[in-house]
Amino acid sequence: MTINKYKSEISMSLYPPPEIIQTEIFTSVPDRFRLKENRSDWVEANKPGQTVDCFLEGPSFDREGNLFVTDIPYGRIFKITPNGEWDQVIQYDGWPNGLRFHQDGRIFIADYKNGIMLLDPVSQKIERFLGHRHSESFKGVNDLIFDSHGQLYFTDQGQTGMHDPTGRVFRYNFEQKRLDCLLDNGVSPNGLVLNPEENVLYVAMTRGNAIWRVPILPDGSTSKVGIFAQLAGGVSGADGLAVDDEGRLFVCDAGNGCVWTFTKFGEPVYRIMAASEGRTTTNLAFGGEDNRELHITESATGTILKLKLDIPGKQLFSHSPL
User: Fold this and answer.
1) 3-state secondary structure of 255
2) Contact at 8 Å (CB) between 1 and 10?
3) pLDDT for 14-46, tens place per residue?
């Protein structure tokens, strides 16, 4: 077999290259909120020797169209208006990562240091909601979502990876006050999202650079967990996830400055490129007009990127009260 024929046969077996799409810069952390001289144990542990004045994560929209983001190393929650105006909601002793609104307006936060936190955006009171399972502390929670029944799903990543595949995914039932462990063999579980039918949970496994597909059976159990998509590699891996109303999956690639988009069958269709200088695209959320605007945190530069898409994102508010 000639080399050219061999290459041709390989190319026929692969998907066509995804379409390249460019984002635009929506807003960046104002200078007055950049903590250039502050010390942070999180920075020393995760970015040793570097100067980190902020590290954005957890984008989520309230019902008024304001975008909330977290700043992990300095325990801050910010609110950004549709016009790009910033306000600090709270600063506390924690490392907040994922953030989601419940339908009643309260904010739930996946805090690596403290567990699942609960924030009242009006009174600005913050308290621990879940800090352990059977008196055993979490490894370090990372991200969270609600389903349409008000159940809370979250990842417990800690320092797991290929060397220690013991990361966990939990589901909490508010009515029964029951915490179930759905996975305990994750390779650094990070972002997570449900498909529109809510019978499949996608989980980003950062150090494995893959997205796992976790079927949710009618009785709530899981079965036949597999790899939905495998990224090519790099210095980090798959991070935040989102889906649109057609079931397309959007995957932040935290080391390569982009967001990959796959059909519900796992076919790559878009590579959405960061407009900022940084390459650390960590998380994303749909919002804006008709819920068609994708907002992406680029953490290395403290920038929010924006892109308008043809299909609206899946609504993330739960539909039933606690």
Assistant:
1) coil
2) no
3) 788 899 999 999 999 999 999 988 889 999 999
Can you give the residue ranges of every domain in the chain?
A: 22-308
Q: Which of these, 257, 298, 288, 273, lies nearest to 27 by C-alpha position?
A: 298
Strands 268-273 and 19-22: parallel
Q: Which CATH class is domain 22-308?
A: mainly beta
Residue 72 in contact with residue 282, Cβ under 8 Å?
A: no
Contact 55, 76 (CB under 8 A): no
Per-residue burial over 227-239, b if 16 or more Cβ lie within 10 Å, else e, is ebbebeeeebbbb
* 256 CB neighbour count, 10 Å cutoff: 21
Share of the chain above pLDDT 70, in %: 94
DSSP 8-state symbol, 36: S
Rounded Cα distance between 322 and 115, Å, is 19
Shortest CA distance to 116 belongs to which of 107, 125, 104?
A: 107
Classify burial at 320, counting beta carbons within 10 Å of its beta carbon; exposed 0-12, middle 13-18, buried 19 or more.
middle
